[in-house]
Amino acid sequence: SQDNETCSLSIQTDYPYAAAVIMTLRLPSALNFTLNLRIPAWAQGAGLSINGTRATQSPQPGRFAAIRREWRSADRIELELPLMQRLESIDAAHPETVALLAGPLVLMRIVDEDTSASSTVTRTSLSAAQRDRNGRHEWQARTDGGFLKLKPFLDIDGESYSAYQNVLPS
């Protein structure tokens, strides 16, 4: 509700698996208000468009993008949150023990009988893990003994997994 008017915001997205978040406003009449969108700290290079026009200022990671304007019904806001892959160490004392993240997702190493627990992976190889091209929520990273299979925690179903891997320098 805005100025005692019923308003709605519909969202189309496959987030957190896809970077695009598309929002459409439904308003009874034109209204002036501020729409605040949280930009996660990890979202370097985030982008924002309104009705197909790119915002002149890029959203700042770790802050809110405050958009004040006269909104009309069917206005479309497109938020792009790049799902950059990055490594995060378990702590400062163990920089070689890392987790792979893709945007907000922590990618877990799937451990099964076909995966050698002793396989080693480099920092570069783990950082360059590739997402499955068939649309599954899986990634692969090359090791000295083949490939690691990685999945987001929310897609693990009864599989053994590990969030952290020991990596060798690249």
Structure at a glance:
Helices cover 3% and strands 49% of the residues.
How would you describe this structure to a colleague?
The mean pLDDT is 91. It is built from 1 helix and 16 strands. The chain has one helix at residues 123-127, and strands at 8-13, 20-26, 31-39, 47-50, 53-54, 63-71, 76-80, 85-89, 97-102, 105-111, 121-122, 130-131, 139-143, 146-152, 160-162, 165-168. By secondary structure, it is mainly β. The strands form 3 sheets. Strands 8, 9, 10, 11, 12, 13, 14, 15 and 16 form a 9-stranded mixed β-sheet that branches. The protein has a 5-stranded antiparallel β-sheet with strand order 1-2-7-4-5, with no helix packed on it. It has a two-stranded antiparallel ribbon with strand order 3-6.
Secondary-structure blueprint of this entry?
Layout: E1 8-13, E2 20-26, E3 31-39, E4 47-50, E5 53-54, E6 63-71, E7 76-80, E8 85-89, E9 97-102, E10 105-111, E11 121-122, H1 123-127, E12 130-131, E13 139-143, E14 146-152, E15 160-162, E16 165-168
Parallel strand pairs: 11-16
Antiparallel strand pairs: 1-2, 2-7, 3-6, 4-5, 4-7, 8-9, 9-10, 9-16, 10-14, 10-15, 12-13, 13-14
